[in-house]
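User: For my dataset I need records formatted as: sequence, then structure tokens, nothing else. Please produce one.
Assistant:
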Amino acid sequence: MTVTIRTLNELLQPSHLPAHPLATQEYFVNMGPQHPISHGSLRLVLRLDGETVKEVIPVPGFVHRGVEKMCESLTPRQIVPYTDRLDYLSAFMNNWAITRVVETAAGIESNERIETIRTLMSELQRIQSHALWWGVTGMDLGAFTAFLYGFREREVISEIFEETVGARLTMNYIQPGGVMYDIHPNFVKRVKDVMAYMKPIIDEYDTLLSGNVILQERCRNIGILSPEKAIALGCTGPVLRASGVPYDLRKMENYGVYNKVDFNVVVGAVGDCWDRYYVRMQEMRESIRIVEQLIDSIPEGPTMTLRYNLPIEMPEGTYYSQVETARGVFGAFLVAEGKSEKPYPLHFRSPNYNNLWSVTALAPGWRVADIIAILSSLDLVIPDIDR
């Protein structure tokens, strides 16, 4: 097989002038980089023929910080705060990924209380993340009110996190051997109150936006991703499940206490923007089911099985672990050289990176305005790509 490598400059060379008098000429337009709060600093180069998109060339790298390289000189506990600054809307789950691989490598034990708390925090954050995505998607497509409603629910859940963790966004709570702090005395009551509050709120979301004719026209049968293409591109999470592939690590690997709860893996039928919208809306309801099944049965026990300042040495070898974040599979791969706390090398498998490149398959043939709907349906967090 021959692989042709082209640089960005080669890709952006203007096409030859058309020979036919009625033929059109292609041209390039930059979409982005946007302000960091608008999905992140991503640049898309669009090759256009009029309003029709012929090709999309993603150009990431605007917020690259060399996180993986820095982690090579850090201990496992020091690495955890770097993970929540990748996909900051899945901070707990990213913490959990590096924690799982370190616990596997070093043979560190957990317990039912720790695993239950980890699962509860992750599912609360999944609800929070999807609610914020819903609001941002509405704003992207012209419904500014949805943005205010999404942030309203985000704040309600952030207050629960702040009581226990002391932070609202970048949380290094899940640590090798347990969690940083025990849950706040008000945690159970507040979570139950918020879950009772969220059930009608999601129905309200549907009333406000889901059935809106403009949203339907902007999403249905737009940006269709076939299951074969989604798998080939390495897509995961709602993007993959919207294409009809029922792959969810919470069911496949049964980490945490997911094997103790009943919930459905939501899948789409077409793989269009609407299915990606629908899957996340239903996943919020499924996450509420998971939380409600666990909140009244948190086992007793310690929340840390290691002394906090105890060095963690990993036997020589290669190790990998992964979790299902709000955007898909986040994996941590490390190589331990033995007799050292510090891994070399360390690599994160980011769900956003693969999901981003699906736009190269989704966008051609659609209009410039459709790119907005397609990007919103992918729910990208760019710092998770620019590692």
